[in-house]
Amino acid sequence: MPRARDVRPRHQQIAAELRDLIMRGDLAPGEQLPSTARLVAKYDAANATIQHALKALKDEGLLDSRAGKGVYVRDRQPLVIDAAAYIAPAPGRFRYELLAVDTVVPPRDIIDGLRLAPDARAVVRTRILYHDDQPVELSASYYPADIAAGSALDKTTRIRGGAPGMLARLGFAQRTFVDRISARSPTVAEVEALDLPDGTPVIRQLRVVYSDNDRPVEASVLIKGAHLHELRYQQAVLPE
After folding, report:
1. Which entry of 56, 123, 129, 222 is 20 to 30 Å from 111 by CA?
2. pTM of the entire structure?
3. Does some domain include residue 45?
C-alpha cells in the first residue's frame, strides 16, 4: 500500500511544524521567532506563505506580534482536561452562559448512555463556558425527563448549587462518571459558538454520570477547541 502524502497547503504544513516546536517547548514562551527572511529560507517558501502560516498561529493564540520587534511565542497555558477527576470550573476567570433549555428526543449516543427507550424524552441544557471572556467549551447536558421534569433542571434559570446539587436534592446524587473522548472537525455551529480559528479540530467529550445502583442520571456532550486544551491522564501502575 502506498504511503500517505501530506497534501495540505504549504502554509498549513509550516504552521504545523512551528506549532509542534511551540507545544514541545523548543520555542519557549517569550522567545522570538526567527525573522521572516530566515523562515523563508528554512522552509523554502514564499514570504506570503510564511505570513499566512504565522497568522494561523496568531489566531490560535500561540504567537504575538510586537510592533517593530518581531513575532514572539505567547505565554499561554492550555486548559487541562483531567481525565481522572471531576473538576468544576473555578469561579472568577470562568463563567457559564445558558443558551437554551429544551425537552427533546435525544440523539442515539445519549439514549444509549442514559439507557432510555428509543422514543423517550430528555431535558437538555445547552451552555457556553467562557474563560476570561473567551468561549472555550460548548456543552449540552441531558437529563431523563422522569427525573428533570418540573425541577429547576427544566427551567431557563441558573441552578443554585448547579446540576449536581439539584440532582442530589432530587435523590440522585452523582457517584461516578465515564468519559469517552474523541476528536473531529467542528460543525458550523461549533465554529461560530467557539470562535474557532480556521482548520481547528475539536475535542468531543461524552460524559455519562451515574447515581446509586449504577443509574445514569446525566449525559453531556462537551465540545472544546483543540488549540486551547490538553488531556491529562494519571494511573497507578499495578505490580505484575
Report:
1. 129
2. 0.81
3. yes
Nine cell digits for residue 182: 474523541
Summarize pLDDT for 121-177 with one digit per residue, the tens: 999 999 999 988 899 999 999 999 999 999 999 999 989 889 999 999 999 999 999
Q: 490560535: which residue's cell?
A: 60
- Could you give the CA distance from residue 221 to residue 216 in angstroms, rounded to a whole number? 14
Q: Which domain holds residue 187?
A: 79-232
Asked whether 74 and 227 are in contact (CB, 8 A), the reply is no
60 vs 40: CA distance, rounded Å = 21
Check whether 88 has a pLDDT greater than 70.
Answer: no
Whether the Cβ atoms of residue 80 and residue 181 lie closer than 8 Å to each other: no
Q: Identify the DSSP state of 153.
A: G
Of 83, 78, 81, the closest CA to residue 24 belongs to: 78
* 99 three-class SS: strand
Does some domain include residue 154? Answer: yes
| C-beta of residue 217 within 8 angstroms of C-beta of residue 167 | yes
- pLDDT bin (cut points 50, 70, 90) of residue 86 is low
